[in-house]
Amino acid sequence: MRDSRRPAPCNSRNPPGPLYMSDASSPATATAPDMLELAALLCSRVCHDLISPVGAIVNGLEVLDDDPKPEDREFALDLIRKSAKTASARLQFCRLAFGAAGSSGAQIDLGDAQTMAKGHIEDGKCSITWNLPRLLLPKNRVKLLLNMLVVAQHTIPRGGMLTVDPIGEGETMSFRITATGHNARLPQNISELLSGERGPAADAHAIQPYYTRLLAQACGLTVKLAPEGEAITVTAS
């Protein structure tokens, strides 16, 4: 029987549970959330992503408070270090992907976006090949790119590679992300949520692809998710 004081291994990098609700709970006639509900659901999504690493930090501190054996103390300190790093990376990513990230006309450096994307997504199972040039783009395009990466990550639940390529150039550049990995698949209802054929389910997981569609519309683009051989592509064009 495991010592209740000993923190469970941190699994904060794993994507959260099922992304979308079932057909019965997410009918095609579902109405779009109003601004208050959209804000609340996005906040819930961010909180969900942070609960695991922050909870692991608390568990590690509780072990240290119990004056543990040297090996338990080192285990707790290692858990705290890794979880704090994960929480920081997730906060930075979420600030850019979901937050205001400057004024309405702000531009964001794609190099900064690359750093945040790698810090959030790369975990030993999933890696990113970034083929975009370093330049400034309107913030909504960069937010769209980061949200497309989140969508693409969920198509390779066992890990793999996300390859990011440009479509076009300059401030009108759009993106193509190719996800390759064992058992790459299309998550349930994701294509309909991205295209607008299906209304968003009232939970913090389904709101993310819906928000991705809103960002694409703000940029005058459409996001499409499709299989391509053994890979899955997410394209904004």
Automatic annotation (TrEMBL):
GO MF entry, a single one: transferase activity
Domain Histidine phosphotransferase ChpT C-terminal: 111-230
Signal peptide: none
Residue segments, region Disordered: 1-26
InterPro entries: ChpT_C, HATPase_C_sf
Keyword Transferase: yes
Coiled-coil features, chain-numbered ranges: none
Keyword vocabulary terms for this entry: Transferase
Classification via NCBIfam families: HisPtaseChptBrucRhz
Protein name: Histidine phosphotransferase
Taxonomic placement: Bacteria, Pseudomonadati, Pseudomonadota, Alphaproteobacteria, Hyphomicrobiales
